[in-house]
């Protein structure tokens, strides 16, 4: 096929994937909406452990759901995950055909960065779904991906074309692929941290004699999600370190004759690194867990999003080509 044909296929696949992700988001939203039944009505602290009125730890108390509601939640979850897989395959096809149309790696401008980075979010999510059963992140993940793809298609689209001279280097593949994968992991870790805060609040409410929805009751314990978020971010941090703070300066020296120039993109990449370094350091040395660690992780995620979107579009610098 010709380059124009590949470009046409990509331009069809990306919007179609956006619609499929949006349908997956709706399915996961229905799953959460269905779960309105109470799970645990009362709880007490017994030997330092939060337990329900029947003596079981709150994290081990099964959700008290009406059979019909439970089946509907399961069905909505399965449909959402299947739609996410379908959206991912279409998304992957759109990114690959975009690269074939341009005859290069598909991340030479902001549109291509967006479709590739959101694909990385889907990849990381689907991998961790298989390993850690993170289906409960489906609503947040599909919302993020659909929003990024929608923004890319409506506001950032650029016809496929050659790279600007500064991007002609094999370091492009190393630098951007590592940044995209670690960014996907930062997103998953940030969403986990948000859900941790929600579940921890619900557990405290149960401790005070309140109730918890069936949707929240299906989530792992807050402590478990805190640990999973740590594993995800511990995976992403060294990848970001290598891809952005090692490969990036080497590429900068190749393209511009200097390793570091305090360009806004470089500064905010360093700020992102510092926030996540603080997160890992606080957990390892100060023993920070729970709410404080989750707050740092969420701050890091917003810093990363600003670095990815705000700096490229709003700030003029050596990386301004990323916004064209």
TrEMBL record:
Annotated PANTHER family: CYTOCHROME B_B6 PROTEIN-RELATED (PTHR30071:SF1), HEME EXPORTER PROTEIN C (PTHR30071)
Primary location group: membrane
Keyword Membrane appears in the UniProt entry: yes
Residue stretches in coiled coil: none
Compartments where found: Membrane
TM region(s), chain numbering: 6-26, 79-101, 113-129, 136-158, 170-198, 232-252, 267-286, 293-315
Membrane topology type: Multi-pass membrane protein
Entry protein name: Cytochrome c-type biogenesis protein CcsB
Occurrences of domain Cytochrome c assembly protein (ranges): 107-319
Any one Gene Ontology molecular-function term assigned to this protein's record: heme binding
GO CC term (a single one): plasma membrane
Highest taxon, organism lineage: Bacteria
């Amino acid at each position: 096929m010709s380059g124009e044909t590949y470009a046409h296929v990509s331009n069809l696949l990306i919007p179609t994937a956006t619609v499929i992700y949006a349908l997956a988001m709706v399915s996961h939203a229905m799953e959460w909406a269905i779960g309105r039944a109470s799970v645990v009505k009362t709880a007490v602290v017994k030997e330092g452990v939060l337990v329900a009125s029947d003596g079981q730890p709150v994290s081990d108390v099964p959700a008290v759901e009406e059979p019909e509601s439970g089946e509907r939640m399961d069905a909505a979850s399965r449909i959402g995950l299947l739609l996410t897989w379908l959206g991912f395959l279409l998304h992957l096809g759109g990114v690959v055909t975009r690269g074939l149309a341009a005859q290069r790696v598909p991340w030479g401008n902001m549109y291509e960065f967006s479709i590739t980075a959101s694909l990385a979010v889907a990849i990381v999510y689907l991998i961790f779904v298989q390993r850690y059963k993170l289906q409960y992140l489906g609503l947040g993940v599909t919302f993020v991906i659909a929003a990024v793809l929608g923004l890319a298609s409506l506001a950032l689209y650029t016809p496929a074309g050659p790279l600007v001279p500064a991007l002609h280097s094999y370091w492009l593949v190393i630098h951007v692929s590592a940044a995209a994968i670690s960014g996907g992991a930062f997103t998953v870790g940030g969403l986990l941290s948000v859900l941790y805060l929600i579940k921890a609040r619900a557990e405290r409410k149960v401790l005070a004699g309140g109730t918890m929805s069936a949707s929240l009751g299906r989530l792992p314990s807050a402590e478990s999600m805190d640990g999973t978020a740590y594993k995800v971010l511990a995976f992403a941090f060294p990848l970001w370190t290598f891809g952005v703070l090692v490969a990036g300066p080497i590429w900068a020296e190749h393209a511009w004759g200097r390793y570091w120039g305090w360009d806004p993109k470089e500064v905010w990449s360093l700020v992102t690194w510092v926030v996540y370094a603080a997160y890992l350091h606080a957990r390892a040395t100060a023993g920070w867990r729970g709410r404080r660690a989750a707050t740092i992780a969420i701050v890091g995620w917003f810093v990363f999003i600003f670095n990815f979107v705000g700096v490229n579009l709003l700030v003029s610098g050596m990386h301004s080509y990323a916004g064209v």
